[in-house]
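Archive maintenance. Older records in this collection stored only the sequence; we are now back-filling the structure field for every entry so that each record is complete. The fields below show one back-filled record exactly as it appears after the update. Entries are processed alphabetically, and SWIM-type domain-containing protein is next in the queue.

ARCHIVE ENTRY
Title: SWIM-type domain-containing protein
Organism field: Peribacillus deserti
Length field: 538
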Amino acid sequence: MEVLHVGEALLEVLNPHDEVVQVSVQQGFSLYTQGLVYRLADYEDHVTATVQDLVPAKVVFDMNNPANSSCSCDDGLMCRHQIAVFLAAYSKRASVRLWIDRWKSKQEEAEAPIEEETLALTSARDVLEQKKTFKRSFSSWKGYIDKTFDRYILKNKTMPEYMLDRMWGSFNQKLKEKAPIEREWRHLYDFVSLYVVLLNCLKLIKSDPSPKVSLSFFHDLASNSAEELQEIIPSIGRQAQPFAFDEFLEGIKDEAWQLLEGGSSLQYERVDFYRSLWRYLLKKSAWRSKEIKRLEEALNEKHSEAQTASYQIALIHLLLLTNQDEQAMELLGGLQASASPFLYAWLQYSIETGNEKRAALFIEHVIKRVNPFLSALVSYYERTDFVRTFSMPIRVFCQETKRSDLLERFYRETLPYSYYEYSRVLFDREEYQKWVELQMFSGETLTLTGNESLKILQAKEPSLLLPLYHHAVLSNLEQKNRQAYKAAVRYLKKLKALYKKLKQENRWDEYIENLSVSTKRLRAFQEELQRGKLIHVE
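Back-filled structure field:
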């Protein structure tokens, strides 16, 4: 059931003359007006939320049958928490205060509830008529979205985040009322809406340093909008576009420059989306040529390091799109190592378009610049994640072009963060000598190497296991505890069997004798050697 219908139903069943009901509604309204309803989630047939009371209450409000609603407080049907959650959900569609007034006066025949700001609900025919009169132009759409965003969001920018979340729901509802019916136009409308929201958020973040503003809300909103736009834009670019779209594309182009401004704040999200705009939507040669000239002029002026990097990345991208690779690669050499994440999209694009020469140049550049960038990352996880992300397209390219040398150079340059990827590739290629060298270099224990790999190696190249087992013995001895000594003896037994298989018993005898002598002060280890029947004491 739609929340407005639920509101009408509750007006019928909640008796304003019942003292228990009066208390529930009054307390629920108080909780709602204090902003104590949070984590509100609207599903198809129910709403969930948490109400911050003396003890936090978790509510599931059934929209089809409110009598089936539940609350963790167990105070019975329509407790104050359920009322508060209902009012929070109702506020997204209509005026809560008017609903309360109607409940108090019990005006069953009153006019239907009205939208916030006393905007009347309209019939389906009226809605269609309004949509027809809503001019289809970028300026018209942008003007409406700007005005609505200002009304619902910007004018309330100092509100707590949970209140802004509520206003965001109301804002989206207003946008839906103006959405075109035709699929391709609706798709474009959704795109423009997100685009304008992103621009508004970026403008506020850049210009309003007031501590009263919920900047984290706008940062998250900008980041999420950019992510959604990235998901939508390829399909917008692929769909057949009527001539009427041209005016929209020009409007989108005219606003795109704002994405490059803002220093380091949300730089990756802004600039990466700028690149997608010029790749998927803004394809006219004249537009791209003009943008290249504008970027070149901007780079002749003095800017902050982050701002300069944004212009450089944008110019490199436009040069690549217009097949001016030589100039692009020249500029690429001047990029700071911190710009390395931007290389991924270019590398992927080069591979997708079959430009082997360009892809190889990007990989070479990554190999040269990757270590300074990795050093700047804070955690081991971030470094490993970066290497893993880049290794995927590099591996695909090297397999298709039989350039295993490039892949191996990348893995070697990014050790130890590429250890697992590099190890798997070497083993799959049956380059067992290099695989063993990698294990020795990394210092990983044989328990992490995997028994299956050791079994395969023992069957195909058993002699290569010798250095691994020797290394494992020494590593355990260095720990100097009984458990490690027992592990060392287990590896010694494997070594003994391996030397026997290789018919090198003399080498084994010499090795175990030297080991026994050199560790004679490690009494516990000597005991384990005897217990394992590896040495005999007269």
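Update note: The longest helix spans residues 183-207. Strands lie at 37-42, 46-51, 57-62, 70-71.
Entry marked complete.
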